[in-house]
Design goal:
Blueprint (H helix, E strand, L loop, with lengths): L1 H19 L1 E16 L9 E6 L6 E11 L2 E10 L18 E8 L2 E9 L1 H9 L22 H6 L10 E12 L2 E8 L12 E9 L3 E11 L5 E13 L2 E14 L2 E17 L2 E13 L5 E14 L4 E14 L9 E12 L1
Antiparallel strand pairs: 1-2, 1-3, 1-17, 3-4, 4-5, 5-6, 6-7, 7-8, 8-9, 9-10, 10-11, 11-12, 12-13, 13-14, 14-15, 15-16, 16-17
């Protein structure tokens, strides 16, 4: 009987030890704001609305890590988006984990993740953004928000953002961080039978951050399912001095479509600073420039001011003012060349 008790105690101890080496975290963000925007239609009317995920995109996620021993760890991430204004899932393509669904292994040699993953170009663009990927429904970097390309360019496969795709499906991504230097590479097969190139994407990137100086660059090459070539890069740098962070960046995406060339370039610069305890101020300027066939070209300028007050590490109030000016082929469907918006909201992380 005594031996049985000892064996049971050892089994429970072993189970507790295994459990201690595995962790699963439930996390997320909920963000809602009141927004007013001018010149939303041809008559020049304004629009008041409750905006969802204005400062930081709403999400619910699960993240897990298991220590396999010898420095090797398994990890996974499942993340879904939702709207705080209606509570509806952000899954217009009927995808539950539309933000991230990946599993991988990591060790001293680096990390390999497979699944639906943020692209290297997106990670680079976020790193170089003065607003650190806040106000994504306004800023044109990740998804080209607020910038509407001509229909022919969209059909050809050109993106309005700076990241050559925020996420890739079927992605195989490698990363290695050594001190201030991070190296990344990825390959996303197109899964087209008989032609490995069609629908595929590949990229390499480098990032440097020693807390005073920062720099990053990435090159992405894609091919549409129809065989059109797409080439894009993102580069930028910045510094931190006297409590102020300054960042500048530039991207260029070029899409070939049966001999017709479409190009989108985004340049930006900005600075952020803690102007008072818990109060951060950020200002940035973004310029989008489009070139297409038959001398078709357009421009969008965005000037964005933002304030964020942190009640805690999880909860903050925010306010922003955005000023837009459009020209040529980038004038929106409303026909308005100028647009102004302002938002006031609250964001909570959990």
């Amino acid at each position: 009987m005594k031996k049985t008790h000892i064996a049971l105690a050892l089994a429970l101890l072993a189970a507790a030890n295994v459990h201690a080496q595995t962790s699963v975290t439930v996390y997320g963000s909920i963000d809602a704001s009141v927004r007013y925007q001018t010149n939303v239609d041809a008559e020049g009317n304004g629009l008041a609305s409750v905006a969802s995920g204005q400062y930081y995109s709403n999400r619910l996620g699960f993240r897990g890590v298991e220590d396999l021993g010898g420095g090797l760890k398994a990890r996974f991430t499942l993340e879904s988006g939702f709207g705080s204004d209606t509570g509806a899932l952000d899954n217009t393509n009927n995808v539950l984990f539309n933000r991230t669904a990946s599993v991988g292994l990591g060790g001293a040699w680096g990390n390999v993740d497979i699944g639906r993953i943020y692209t290297i170009a997106f990670r680079t663009e976020k790193f170089l953004d003065p607003f650190d990927h806040h106000y994504t429904p306004i800023v044109p970097l990740s998804s080209g928000a607020g910038t509407t390309l001509p229909a022919a360019a969209r059909t050809a496969g050109l993106g309005a953002g700076a990241s050559a795709g925020t996420r890739f499906n079927n992605d195989i991504q490698y990363s290695l961080a050594k001190g201030p230097l991070t190296l990344r590479a990825e390959y996303a097969p197109g899964e087209v039978a008989g032609d490995a190139g069609r629908g595929s994407a590949r990229a390499v990137g480098i990032q440097y951050d020693n807390k005073s100086l920062l720099a990053a660059g990435v090159y992405t090459q894609r091919e549409t399912t129809t065989g059109f070539k797409n080439r894009a890069y993102v580069i930028g740098a910045g510094f931190v001095a006297a409590g102020t962070t300054v960042k500048v960046g530039h991207s260029r995406e070029e899409q070939d479509a049966a001999g017709t060339d479409y190009r989108n370039r985004v340049s930006w610069a900005g600075a952020s600073r803690d102007v008072a305890p818990a109060l951060e101020a950020t200002v940035a300027f973004y310029r989008s420039r489009y070139n297409g066939p038959a001398a078709s070209e357009g421009k969008r300028d965005l000037l964005l001011f933002g304030l964020s007050y942190a009640f805690s590490k999880r909860t903050n109030l925010y306010a922003e003012l955005d000023l837009n000016r459009y020209d040529g082929a980038l004038i929106p469907a409303s026909g308005q060349e100028r647009q102004r918006g302002t938002s006031f909201g609250i964001n909570h992380l959990f």
